[in-house]
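Deliverable D2.4 — example input (structure tokens):
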């Protein structure tokens, strides 16, 4: 009798001091409960499967969040995330996506007939790579599209994309089977890192308690808009690190400058966190916004400004060391030269510029003016930044010559 009381007391003590352990009467083994849990956004409607890869009939809607065990597992030939505290597994391709190469220049669509932008780009080019989520959708026009972003509707035609280059989900070593009933004993002082990167372009950041860190977004003019203030210690999965003009705007908005300003994009959103206000679990690739999203030129000499009809404005931009954004490449008939020339259209600026203007005595003199919004410069007069986005002409020489003859 005393022996039985001792056994019961021992079991009770074990339960009291070991809340993360449970007894499996069928397997007769001790299993660790779900730990290392993270919240992740579902990017594509996901069916939940059981540990054997059979559908449970449960669905998780796109752009909802799920509490998942951070370490992915492999069931059969597919990678899954386990739903915390449930016998449910979601395919990682619906969450992290896969990387594909663009095989033909392509637009981004919100519907079968309406175009939209993706990361401030209206067109993607052959050779670039992009993340797609889940399987393709068939639109009303009968064509198939892959989702490339969200929650805004952003899709790319499937026939403009090549096969999968790589999965964006990183498997830990020996973490490829969920059916094992054995446990690995760890030393008492071992710790589990719940902020490991999930893909090559993804990591987890923790909000620094020493900063008042706002979550921000950008309006159509790339002005900073505050969403809310992040809570100290709050964790986010981020999938893009950016520097350049937009990051500089955020630094100016917050009033904190730390050398090379950068911003992290919160995965599945268009919301951002300033790099000085968070601590990343690991490094991810740094992208320059201006190089990757815009086209830029430099004025290597004093450069004439033209109107859209090919006439001179009698204004010259002064040679500068900084780049200028351009948003269009176009052929224009130049009446004074009686020929077609290729021009860049300058992105409008609201700042006054140091220029030379033609005076009444026929000499160019230094001036400081506000430029109008429709300005062109000859391609032959400027230097194009090779690392920025290439432009293609919006018309042809033949079209311009035919219009000139009329």
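Example output (designed residues):
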């Amino acid at each position: 009798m005393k022996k039985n009381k001792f056994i019961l007391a021992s079991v009770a003590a074990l339960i009291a001091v070991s809340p993360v352990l449970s007894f499996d009467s069928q397997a007769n083994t001790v299993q660790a409960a779900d730990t290392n849990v993270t919240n992740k956004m579902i990017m594509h409607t996901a069916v939940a499967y059981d540990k054997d890869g059979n559908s449970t009939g449960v669905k998780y809607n796109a752009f909802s969040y799920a509490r998942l065990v951070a370490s992915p597992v492999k069931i059969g030939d597919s990678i899954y995330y386990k739903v915390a505290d449930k016998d449910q597994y979601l395919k990682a391709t619906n969450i992290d996506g896969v990387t594909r190469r663009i095989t033909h220049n392509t637009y981004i669509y919100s519907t079968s007939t309406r175009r939209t932008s993706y990361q401030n780009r209206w067109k993607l080019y052959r050779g670039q790579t992009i993340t797609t989520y889940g399987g393709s959708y068939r639109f009303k026009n009968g064509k198939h599209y892959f989702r490339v972003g969200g929650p805004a509707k952003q899709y790319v035609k499937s026939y403009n994309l090549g096969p999968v280059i790589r999965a964006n989900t990183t498997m830990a070593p020996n973490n490829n089977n969920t059916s094992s009933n054995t446990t690995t004993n760890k030393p008492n002082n071992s710790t589990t890192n719940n902020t490991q990167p999930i893909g090559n372009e993804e990591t987890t950041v923790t909000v620094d308690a020493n900063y008042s860190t706002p979550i921000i977004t950008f309006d159509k003019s790339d002005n900073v808009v505050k969403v809310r203030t992040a809570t100290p210690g709050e964790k986010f999965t981020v999938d893009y690190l950016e520097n350049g003009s937009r990051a500089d705007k955020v630094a100016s908005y917050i009033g904190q400058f730390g050398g090379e300003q950068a911003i992290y994009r919160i995965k599945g959103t268009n919301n951002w966190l300033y790099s000085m206000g968070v601590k990343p679990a690991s490094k991810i690739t740094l992208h320059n916004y201006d190089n990757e999203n815009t086209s830029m030129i430099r004025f290597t000499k004093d450069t004439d400004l033209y109107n859209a009809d090919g006439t001179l404005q009698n204004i010259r931009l002064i040679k500068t060391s900084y780049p200028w954004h351009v948003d269009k490449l176009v052929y224009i008939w130049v009446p004074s030269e009686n020929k077609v020339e290729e021009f860049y259209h300058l992105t409008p600026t609201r700042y006054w510029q140091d220029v030379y203007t033609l005076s009444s005595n026929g000499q160019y003199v230094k001036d400081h003016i506000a430029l109008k919004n429709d300005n062109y410069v000859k391609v032959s007069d400027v230097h194009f930044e090779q690392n920025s986005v290439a432009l293609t002409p919006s018309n042809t020489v033949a079209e311009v010559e035919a219009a000139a003859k009329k």
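The chain has four domains: 1-33, 34-176, 203-289, 295-405.
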